[in-house]
Amino acid sequence: MTRSLRALLLTAGALAAALPAGCSRERIAECDALLATLEQVSECDRLEPGQRLQVEQAVRSMKESMDRLEDVGPGRGPATLLDETKRTCAKQDAQLRQLYANVTPACLR
Question: Model confidence over 12-71: pLDDT tens digits?
Fold first, then answer.
């Protein structure tokens, strides 16, 4: 797992921990898009087994973080942390798409 992807998961986890309890079921579109990209890449048969394992671990971690966010509602947290999470998810999604477009473009089809 890349260092920046680990940082994203920590940011999402920190946001979830900082939010008060509730049942809002709000989602962060940028993070949902990143999760969709991760899932798409994890299903790619052109990845080496080690790469696939790393991506699958990232998918699990991202889902756990997003589930925690959804449970408490991202709209109820600090705006700066929410904005940072959105920016980080969008940046990571763009970077993943660029990486796999260059390395194994078939993974993004």
Answer: 555 555 444 444 456 788 988 988 998 898 888 888 888 888 888 888 888 887 777 776
* Token pair belonging to 41: 């890449």
Closest CA to 74 of 10, 11, 28: 28
Is the Cβ–Cβ distance between 17 and 27 less than 8 Å? no
Q: DSSP class of residue 24?
A: -
In eight-state DSSP terms, residue 20 is: P
What does the alpha-carbon distance between residue 38 and residue 55 come to, in Å, rounded to a whole number? 7
Which pTM value belongs to this model?
Answer: 0.71
CB 19 within 8 A of CB 72: yes
